[in-house]
Design a protein that fits this description.
With 705 residues, the protein is α+β, with helices and mostly antiparallel strands. Among the domains are: 162 residues, Neurolysin, domain 3 (Orthogonal Bundle), CATH 1.10.1370; 63 residues, no CATH class; 159 residues, Neurolysin, domain 3 (Orthogonal Bundle), CATH 1.10.1370.10. The chain has a five-stranded mixed sheet with strand order 3-4-5-7-6, with helices on both faces. β4 and β5 form a beta hairpin. α2 packs antiparallel against α4, α18 packs antiparallel against α21 and α19 packs across α20. The longest helix has 32 residues.
C-alpha cells in the first residue's frame, strides 16, 4: 500500500514555484497536474522512465521552496499557516511518488531499477531534510502545544498530533550530531532496501520447467496456466511454474509427483537465499544493525519499540502476548493434522515421513477424507470475473456502492481495467484492477491509493487500485483461481473499500492512512462476505454450466471452515514471531539463516512447516520499514475482525443494515481522524475480546478447557 510520505505548503508558495523554471523541465509529463475527468487522472500512458530523475529533482526543489515559505511566515504559528499549509504542500511530489511506486511494484525494468538505486537515497535524505527542519518543527510544536485552546475541530487536533508525532519520531528533538547520523542511516537503508527488492524480484523472475511426468495428475486449469506462463516467456509448447506464490502454491497443493513438489518447493522457499548475487542474508544483517542504531539514537531500546510506539498495540510486549496466546493451540492443531496426513501416507505405502513440500498435497487428502471436500471441485466455480462482480455486490449491499466500467482512462498496462464508483448517486472515485502476473511485477497482491479523498481543497475523490498475480489462462479459457486466492481478492478489495469509504477533511488522515496494526482490519473483515449465501448463490457459479455451486458443496466448505487453521496460523505466526524477535534482539550481529533456524526450534516450530515468508525473502519487513516489527498486525487486526463479525452475527446476519451503517459511520469512513481504539469502541461499545478470534479458528479460548 502506497502512503502519503512527503510533507507539504501554502497555495501562494505552490503558485510561485510553478512559474519558476528551476522547478520544472519542459515536456516532463510527470510534473504536470492531473487533468481530465473525475477531478484529474494520472497520465500513466505518458510515463517515460528517463523522466523520473529530473522530475523528482524538480519536485523536491518545489517542495523545499514551499517549506521555506512556511518557515519564513512572520505571523505566529497557527493551524492555518502551518499544519494546513503543510497539508497543501508537496502535491507535485506526492503525485510523482504515485507514478514512482506504480513502476517500482508493477513495471520494474532494469532501467527503472537504475533510477531507484540512484534516487531512493536522495528521496530519503530529502525527507529527513524536512523532518529535521528546526524552524518548521518549532512552528508545528507551537500549534501542537496550544491545540486545546485554539478552537480546533477534533480532526484538526488529530492532524496536528500526526504531524507532531511524525516529527518527534523522525528525530526532531535530537542533537545536531544525532540528527545527522539518523539521516545518514535512513539514506543508507533506502539504498539497501532497493537492493533487497532487486534481488527478490530477480529470484521471482525465474521459473521451473515442467516435464510431462511433473504434470501427470494435475488439474487441467493448472496445466493450462503453466503452458500460458511458458508462452508468455517465449517458450511455446512448454510448461513452467513461475517462482511466485500464486504459481507455486497451487502446484504444491495438487501435484501427485512428489519429486516435482520438492523441486518447486525448494526453489520457492529458497528465494533470496541462494548464496549467489541475489542472496539477501548479508543485506538483512546490515539492515538490522542500522535499525537498532537508529532506534537507540531516537531514544528507544529496540527498533520494535520505536515502530510500535504509535500503533494500537503500543508495545512489543503486548503484541508478543497475543501471538504467544495463539501459538500454542495452533501448534497442537498442526500436530493433530500431521498425524492424520502421515496415516494416509502410511496407508498408501508411501514409505516416507511427511515433509514440508508434502503438506499442502496431503492436507487436501485429509480434507477429502474428513469432509468429503476436494477444493479442486470448487475451483470451476471460482472464475475471476464472477468473483470481481461478487465483490461489487457485497460492497453495494454493505455500503451502497455501485461500480460501472469506464473506458478511455490512462493505464500503465493493457491488463488494467477501470470502474467508476458511486454512492447515493454521487461520484466517489475510481477503482483500477490489475489482476495478472508479468515480468517486472512483484509477487503477491496489494492495494494502492493513487489519490486519497479530501475536502480540504474542495471535494477530491479517491483513486485506488488492486493488483494481483493470477496466471493468465490460454486463449479462450477462463481464469479459474483457488479458494485461497478468492479470499485474497476479497481481502485486498477490503483495503480499496476502506479508501473509497473515506469522508474526512484532510488527506493525511484519509482512507487507509491508519496505524499499521489497524489497517488490516477492514480488509480481513471484507473476506467474511465471500461465504455469505447471497454471494455464493449468485456469483460462485460453474464457468461452463453457469449453475450455482451446489448446496451440498457449500455445506462441505462450511463444515471444513476450521480445517487446516493450525497450518495457516503457524505458517503466518512463524514469520510474525521471527520478525519481532529479530527486532527485539538488540545491538548484535545476526546471521539471518542461523537466527531463523535456532529461534524456530526454541518456539517448537513443527518441522513439517516453514515460515510463510522466510527471512531472506521477507519483503514486508526488509524491502522498506513497512511491516518491520509489524507483521504481527494481521493477527492483531484479525482479533478485531472476528469480534466485529460476531456483532453482525448477533444482529441477525452479514448484511444487517443497522450494523453495516454503524460500521461505515464509526470505522470505514473515519480514516485516522480519530484514535482507532476509540473508533472500535464507538462501533462495538467495548474493546475487542480474543474469544471470537479463538472460536473462529477452532482453538480453545483462554481460561477454558
Amino acid at each position: 500500500m502506497q502512503r502519503r510520505t512527503f510533507l507539504a505548503a501554502s497555495a501562494a508558495a505552490v503558485a510561485a514555484a510553478a512559474v519558476n523554471p528551476a522547478f520544472a523541465k519542459e515536456g516532463n509529463a510527470l510534473l504536470a497536474p492531473w487533468t481530465g475527468p473525475y477531478g484529474g487522472l494520472p497520465a500513466f500512458d505518458k510515463v517515460n522512465v528517463a523522466d523520473f530523475k529530473p522530475a523528482l529533482e524538480a519536485a523536491m526543489a518545489e517542495n523545499m521552496a514551499q517549506i521555506d515559505a512556511i518557515t519564513a511566515n512572520p505571523a505566529p504559528p497557527s493551524f492555518a499557516n502551518t499544519i494546513a499549509a503543510l497539508e497543501d504542500a508537496g502535491r507535485t511530489l506526492g503525485r510523482l511518488y504515485r507514478y514512482y511506486g506504480v513502476w517500482s511494484s508493477n513495471m520494474s525494468t532494469p532501467a527503472f531499477q537504475a533510477v531507484e538505486e540512484e534516487m531512493d537515497p536522495k528521496l530519503s535524505a530529502f525527507s529527513d531534510q524536512i523532518n529535521q527542519n528546526e524552524k518548521l518543527f518549532a512552528r508545528v510544536k507551537a500549534v501542537y502545544d496550544t491545540r486545546g485552546a485554539a478552537g480546533l475541530t477534533d480532526e484538526q487536533k488529530r492532524v496536528t498530533w500526526v504531524y507532531y508525532d511524525g516529527f518527534v519520531r523522525s528525530g526532531a528533538l535530537l542533537s545536531p550530531a544525532a540528527k545527522t547520523r539518523v539521516a545518514a542511516i535512513n539514506e543508507e537503508l533506502a539504498g539497501i532496501y532497493t537492493q533487497f527488492n532487486k534481488n527478490l524480484l530477480a529470484d521471482e523472475s525465474t521459473y521451473i520447467e515442467l516435464s510431462d511426468a511433473d504434470m501427470a495428475g494435475l488439474p487441467d486449469s493448472l496445466i493450462s496456466g503453466a503452458r500460458a506462463s511458458a508462452k508468455g516467456k517465449g517458450l511455446d509448447g512448454k510448461a513452467i511454474i513461475l517462482n511466485t506464490r500464486s504459481s507455486a502454491e497451487p502446484f504444491l497443493t495438487y501435484a501427485p509427483n512428489r519429486a516435482a513438489r520438492e523441486k518447486i518447493w525448494k526453489a520457492f522457499v529458497g528465494r533470496g537465499d541462494g548464496g549467489g548475487a541475489t542472496d539477501n542474508n548479508a543485506i538483512i544483517t546490515k539492515i538490522l544493525k542500522l535499525r537498532v542504531e537508529r532506534a537507540k539514537l531516537l531514544g528507544y531500546p529496540t527498533h520494535a519499540h520505536w515502530r510500535l510506539g504509535n500503533a494500537m498495540a503500543k508495545t512489543p510486549e503486548r503484541a508478543m502476548e497475543l501471538m504467544e496466546a495463539v501459538w500454542t493451540p495452533a501448534v497442537a492443531a498442526v500436530k493433530r493434522d500431521v498425524a492424520d496426513m502421515q496415516a494416509i501416507i502410511d496407508a498408501e505405502n508411501g514409505g516416507f515421513k511427511l515433509a514440508p513440500w508434502d503438506y499442502r498435497y496431503y492436507a487436501e487428502k485429509v480434507r477429502k477424507a474428513k469432509y468429503d471436500l476436494d477444493l479442486n471441485e470448487v475451483k470451476p466455480y471460482l472464475e475471476l470475473n464472477n468473483l470481481r462482480e461478487a465483490m461489487f455486490f457485497a460492497a453495494g449491499k454493505l455500503h451502497g456502492f455501485k461500480f460501472k466500467p469506464v473506458s478511455g482512462i490512462p493505464v500503465f498496462h493493457p491488463d488494467v481495467k477501470v470502474w467508476e464508483v458511486t454512492r447515493k448517486g454521487q461520484h466517489i472515485g475510481l477503482w483500477y484492477f490489475d489482476p495478472f502476473a508479468r515480468e517486472g511485477k512483484r509477487s503477491g497482491a496489494w492495494m494502492t491509493d493513487y489519490r486519497t479523498q479530501e475536502t480540504f481543497k474542495g471535494k477530491i475523490t479517491t483513486l485506488v487500485s488492486n493488483n494481483c498475480n493470477y496466471i493468465k489462462a490460454e486463449a479462450g479459457k477462463p481464469v479459474l483461481i483457488s479458494w485461497d486466492d478468492a479470499e485474497t481478492m476479497f481481502h485486498e478489495f477490503g483495503h480499496a473499500i476502506h479508501g473509497l469509504c473515506s469522508e474526512v477533511v484532510y488527506p493525511t488522515v484519509a482512507g487507509t492512512n491508519v496505524a499499521r496494526d489497524y489497517v488490516e482490519f477492514p480488509s480481513q473483515l471484507n473476506e467474511k462476505w465471500l461465504t455469505t449465501p447471497e454471494v455464493m448463490d449468485k456469483y460462485i457459479i460453474h464457468y461452463e454450466t453457469k449453475k450455482p455451486i451446489p448446496k451440498a458443496l457449500v455445506d462441505k466448505i462450511e463444515a471444513a471452515s476450521k480445517f487446516n487453521q493450525g497450518f495457516i496460523t503457524v505458517e503466518y505466526l512463524g514469520s510474525a514471531l521471527i520478525d519481532m524477535k529479530l527486532h527485539l534482539a538488540g545491538d548484535v550481529t545476526i546471521d539471518p539463516d542461523k537466527f531463523e533456524r535456532e529461534e524456530l526450534t526454541k518456539l517448537g516450530m513443527p518441522e513439517e512447516i516453514v515460515m510463510r515468508h522466510r527471512t531472506p525473502q521477507f519483503g514486508h519487513v526488509f524491502s522498506s520499514d513497512g511491516y518491520s516489527a509489524g507483521y504481527y498486525s494481521y493477527l492483531w487486526s484479525d482479533t478485531l475482525t472476528a469480534d466485529c463479525w460476531e456483532a453482525f452475527v448477533e444482529a441477525g446476519g452479514a448484511y444487517d443494515r443497522k450494523t453495516a451503517d454503524r460500521l461505515y459511520a464509526t470505522i470505514m469512513s473515519r480514516g485516522n481522524s480519530k484514535d482507532p481504539a476509540e473508533q472500535y469502541r464507538d462501533f462495538r461499545g467495548r474493546d475487542p475480546e480474543i474469544g471470537a478470534l479463538m472460536r473462529s479458528r477452532g482453538f480453545p479460548e483462554p481460561g477454558k478447557a
